[in-house]
Amino acid sequence: MCFFESIRSLTRHLPLQSHRRENGERFPWRNDIVTTVFWIGENPTANNPVPNHASSWDAAWAKSYGGFDDPNRARRRDYVPVNFTPRQNSILLRSAL
Question: Does any domain span residue 4?
Answer without folding.
Answer: no
